[in-house]
Specification:
The protein is built from six helices and nine strands, in the order βββαββαβαααβαββ. The chain is an alpha/beta fold. Helix 3 packs parallel to helix 5, helix 4 crosses helix 5 and helix 5 runs parallel beside helix 6. The protein is globular. The model has no long low-confidence stretch (mean pLDDT about 90). The structure holds adenosine-5'-triphosphate (ATP) and magnesium ion. Magnesium ion binds next to helix 1.
Length: about 220
């Protein structure tokens, strides 16, 4: 049988003595979409950073397409992340000095796929922001910036898309649109999606939903 796309086992992490993440097991199959929903401060962003290999767990393992992240270090980890993952963090990290289009071209370069202006423009068009290609991130509305960040996460065709609170700073109309686009684009690319959020508006929209309870 093929490896699951994402496999987490016995994952624990704390910034101090108290664990912030304590997740016995979670698996995601290729192309599956899953929402992890929990209140502010319950460790969702921390968990997403563990899955992205941006933090290392104190116990447990994260496997992506069968590869344990703990076996990768430095440049090899960066390469693996670049090739397999598309990441939309809670803070969008668009580079302010670059145009929207150049932010996408940089993402291709970092993923070590061929720089392809056509693919970058198509990714922007799919998210409805093609006309903002030459704008700087500071000139975008919050909803537009969120869409550009999603286009950038998809431009190198990752197998797994990670999204941290993609809707929570948006009004109902924009949150609905961004979620529709995120799901449609993930499905069109056959990418799995792990979304973490405290936004109750995502309930019922993804293949699976896991509640992360409040911590005492
Ligand atoms: N770098 C850090 N150093 C110390 N503590 C941290 C750090 N980052 C987060 N924390 C603490 O860890 C806990 C979980 O934080 P995290 O950002 O993962 O929560 P979250 O569920 O994503 O919250 P939100 O819904 O507000 O984004 C919080 O109590 C937070 O204060
Ligand atoms: Mg968070």
């Amino acid at each position: 049988m093929e490896n699951p796309l994402l496999q987490m086992q016995g994952l624990r992490f704390g910034y101090g003595p108290q664990p912030v993440v304590n997740l016995p097991a979670l698996e995601l199959q290729a192309g599956q979409t899953c929402a992890l929903i929990g209140p502010s401060g319950c460790g969702k962003s921390t968990l997403l950073h563990l899955v992205a290999g941006l933090l290392r767990p104190q116990a447990g393992t994260v496997r992506i397409a069968g590869q344990a992240l703990s076996e990768l270090r430095g440049a090899a980890l960066d390469r693996f992340r670049g090739r397999h993952l598309g990441i939309v963090l809670q803070r969008l990290h668009l580079l302010g000095a670059l145009s929207v289009l150049d932010n996408l071209l940089l993402a291709q370069r970092l993923a070590r796929v061929a720089t392809d202006v056509g693919a970058a423009r198509r990714a922007l068009a799919e998210l409805g922001v093609a006309d903002r290609a030459d704008a700087k991130p500071a000139q975008l509305s919050r909803g537009q910036a969120q869409r550009v960040a999603i286009a950038r996460a998809l431009v190198h065709a990752p197998v797994l898309l990670l999204a941290d609170e993609p809707t929570s700073s948006l009004d109902d109309a924009n949150a609905g649109k961004v979620l529709d686009l995120l799901l449609a684009r993930a499905r069109a690319h056959g990418a799995g999606l792990l979304l973490v959020t405290h936004d109750q508006r995502v309930r019922g929209r993804l293949d699976r939903e896991v509640d992360l309870g409040p911590r005492p």
